[in-house]
Sequence to fold (744 residues):
Amino acid sequence: MKKIIFSLIIFSSLQIFPQIFSNWKNYSDMKSIRSIVTSGNELWAASTGGVFSYNFTSSEYRTFSKAEGLFGTNINAVTIDSYGKIWFGSANGLIDVYNPETNSFSTIRDIFNSDKTNKGINSFKVKGDTIFAATDYGISLIDSKSFFFYDTYFKFGTFSSNIKVSKIYLGNLIYVATESGVAVQKPGTTNLSAPESWNVYNLSNGLPSLRISDITIFGEKLLAASDKGVSVFDETNSTWSSFIPSLNNTSILNMIVVQEKLYLLTQNKVFEYSNSTLNELYSSSLEFKNLSYSTDKGLLIASSNGVLSLNDNKTYFPNGPFVNQFPQLAVDVNGVLWTSTGNDVTGKGIQKFDGNVWSIYNTTENPELPSNSFYSIYAAPDGKVFSGNWGKGFVKIDGNKITRFDASNTPIVGIPQDGNFVVISGFGYDSKNNLWILNYDAGDKNNLAMLTPDSSWFLFQIPAQQNIVVSKNVNLVIDQYDTKWFNSLGNTVALFYFNENKTYQNPNDDKSGIITTSNGLNSSDITAIQIDKRGDVWIGSNRGVNIITNTSTIVNNTNPQLRITSVFALRQQSITAIAVDPLNQKWIGTNEGLVLVSSDGLRVIANLNSKNSPLLDDRIESLAIDEKTGKVFVGTKFGLNTFETPSIKPVDSFSGLSIYPSPFVISDGSQLVTIDGLIKDSEIKIITVSGKLVRKLETPGGRVAYWDGRDDDGNLVNSGIYIVVASDREANSVETGKIAVLRK
Fold:
């Protein structure tokens, strides 16, 4: 049993100030529903992105994921025990139990930590204080009060051990739907761990298939659903036969019995069977997973697009990402997050999140879009947003206006096989506010295009690419000297740079080059490029990170000798993303979590992963930072994480300090005072009202700093009023504030 860490505070002997990662939130697409259950006026739904509840009376949603204490991510099963606690079972064997009275989760890890190869939880049944968990290896019995596992059934009769159990029906006997057929408890047996305590039925007994998906009793008849219809059991001769011949060879996923009616669920249809008559109640293009029944709402369907209510023809799911696909992230000038969703058929449009509401730009909501295959995203400093499409050029979003750019209205040429198929993989503004556009694979070799503020177009071939075959250009960034950096993934795998020297029609003074392992890169298989606050180029690959520090030599030399170093602390990491925070620290996404390193890369400040933080997954897909708030955005295949850091862009000039909490109660020195409103590289002095210096602090350089209530000798200060004096290094700009300290 474990509680979630809502705030991570990391101290280092090499740091004056701690790194505080707080206010963690997770955002996942919760439309793909696996299982549902209702209790009174409340619906609980388990999805691939977490779980949510919906109150039919108040119309309020509540979402739960790792930030709220739910450790499972791919939830298959949900049930409510005899005490009102809600149980969630995951594909990896984790069981999370939510207690509404305490608003807290407990996590049961016994199955997750076991040596079983297959650990998934497929469904639950409740009987008194016992939870029956149908798993990928059999049935486990769990005490709902103590969470103690008091029995597990691994083998049923002559069936193989550790077979997958899909569903359980609890009547006078225990009936089990497995991947090998049906197992039924023998009357009078109590030691159900013994295989001989079970009767088993397979093809030799008349079942049309071994893959039994559900089992129930209807009108005193035992029914088994499979991928070949519904079968009924004949107790006289222990054989099975077709129960509804018209559904033979139809895959039945789920069955429930309500008021002497049998409801059956297929992949996209719901049937009602009553008085020997079968009626089709509902059909859809959506994918169905599970059926449930509510006294108020009637039949409810777990679908690929939320929970469907047949009675009122409504769909229930909380606002969230349209899809858990975040190949690229960008934060605009207003702090709004934009995300691309994928290339080719995987793309679902452009997602936007303003901190409260998610919205989607797709061909359904915005018919002016050419397709949904938006592959790249860029938030420009003037507030415009650009997104590259896989085959249809790119779009500009300026307020409510969407403008398309493709081969028909620009000079950009598509791939060699089809000049109209334009893939745009990256964007960037230079110092003149020209928009630079990276062509993934230009048929005319003009891999860079430029659009000026007055709408003039210029195309550029890269001299360093002229005598080699280059394709799949990605990861465009522009440094302070207006040098364009990007890499290629196809044919020639390398890093490239290009500077047109601000003469857009004179190729003779262009500067370009190719950089590979022969020049000092750890690997040419580059996955991420970023420019930091000093103008250094950070290059991530499958073999760590390199830094190029003397980029000015490109502009001033015909044959620049670039200084390339390797970040020793990241040498074993496979890099997936890089982001630079306002203090020039680097967040590094890897296949094993997030790493925060110092501005020069010499120190690892923090390591975050799915085990020591609310990160949804260890493999980081993308990163972005809101410099005004210090918020970090992390894209994974299970959803988006956000958390706040103290690395916030400093204010331009002092306009008052916000110092909290006040009074500051200190007892053991673990508490911190926040000092907000600082200019760049502020120095802080803590003094008494009589003018005695208590503590001198050098801040990290951003808007926020912290004081732990100690003096320069490391002793906790006494109760009293203290003056906080903040200034720049030369003391030309000064701001003061007060803090009340209460020593316990």
